[in-house]
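queue> holo job accepted (aspartic acid)
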Amino acid sequence: MSRLARRALLAVAALASAAAPAWAQSFPTRPVTVIVPFAAGGPTDTVTRLVAEAMGRDLGTTVVVENAGGAGGTIGAQRVANAKPDGYTLLLHHIGMATTPSLYRRLAYDPVGGFEPVGLVTEVPMTLVAKKDFPANTLAEAIAVIRRDQEKLNYANAGIGAASHLCGLLLMKAVDAPMTTVPFRGTGPAMQEVLAGRIDLMCDQTTSTTEQIKSGAIKAFATTTPARLAALPEVPTSAEAGLPEFQVTVWHGLYAPKGTSPELVARLSQSLQVALRDPKLIARFAELGTEPVAAERATPAAHRAFWLADIAKWKPIIQGAGQYAD
Ligand code: ASP
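queue> job finished
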């Protein structure tokens, strides 16, 4: 082959590779960012950091966790919905992805169409907790105090649509006593206020409360699950404690922006599945009172079906209550 012909061939090859779609080139070639739509130190953050570390090992790159809390998770979700769909910006969000579409009538992003689900991650139980010197030791005693002192008591949440908000609504409905609600950018900072004794009560995932309950830094009145938890065997279930309707688990899922290619979504889902089988992640999840979902639920199709069904489940509840965030 002449020198000229070889040069022409090389030029064609260079052009072809430049024109190849992004997914066909190797991914990733740089760090991936996962946005957590709540503050650092909270349960969504804890789950995300464990998943990010394990996915990073599989992807061979750093998976950076960035906290973008506020407005019940909608600020962080908006960042991802509007991000470039190149696989480098992802969202790890919880059940709020199913309540936001009904709770918020005006959003600067599409809360359903703006995302490509990658896979479910985990379903986390919740606990009703209180500051250490809250004047009750059982749920029955706590309910009596809430009914008596409802005007003086405060309840923390992570904004409208957050799991702590939904759990608080269930509680206040069950005991028929509204309390002053104090919103935070996530339950991480809210927990600091419970520990300092400035917030009376909060509902939060076991991924945030287990260690504080075990060390005696806060009180726990009930889990929101049908059975007691292996990580917290001494805490009664809501039904045992007398409030059977007070049940909620908080699922978490991973998302890419709308328009991310199916090949990239499949690669990310494969990596998520590897992460969810990581022994280190499984062991830490167990210490925090949760476990990864089964592999077949960590696929884009299964996650989409589950997510859409949950949106349909919450819509009549939210619309019936007429409680909108805006
Ligand atoms: N778990 C919190 C909530 O939904 C949010 C967080 O992770 O900080 O209330």
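queue> The longest helix spans residues 300-321.
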